């Protein structure tokens, strides 16, 4: 969708759109996604005995599974079409995911008292946000295929929990050659 089309749909001139959103990606993505704060809070406010990656992963599974609800389906489908139709938006989405990964890795480092430059917080954050990216794409694919409602919410939750279980138990036995 072009900026001109956006302006026409909004009933304003193109210049007005650019005054409020200097780059097209600003029309789709917020500068500081609300998920960032909520994700970090899930880690900071987790119950005793729950690992930081498990808290972050649990938050992600709960949040993404709701994208399968009938109420969310139209918005999820429209966002999927818009993002998948724009290379610029795909790049911006990856940049946002990268920044979110950096923020989560920094929080994991604080939580564990890890010295700067260690790989573990970064690796754990990437794994957890890989779960996020995979579930988000699954939600988009399923909604675009016409699925929505309690069944899709349950499917996303089950697949998310299975992915989180894999992360929590480690990859040692995954895809082992027999």
Automatic annotation (TrEMBL):
Keyword Transcription regulation: no
Domain HTH tetR-type: 1-39
Domain of life (superkingdom): Bacteria
Alphabetical list of Pfam families matching this protein: TetR_N
Alphabetized InterPro entries for the sequence: Homeodomain-like_sf, HTH_TetR
Keyword DNA-binding: yes
Keyword annotations from UniProtKB, A to Z: DNA-binding
DNA bind region: 2-21
Single GO MF descriptor: DNA binding
Protein name listed in UniProt: TetR family transcriptional regulator
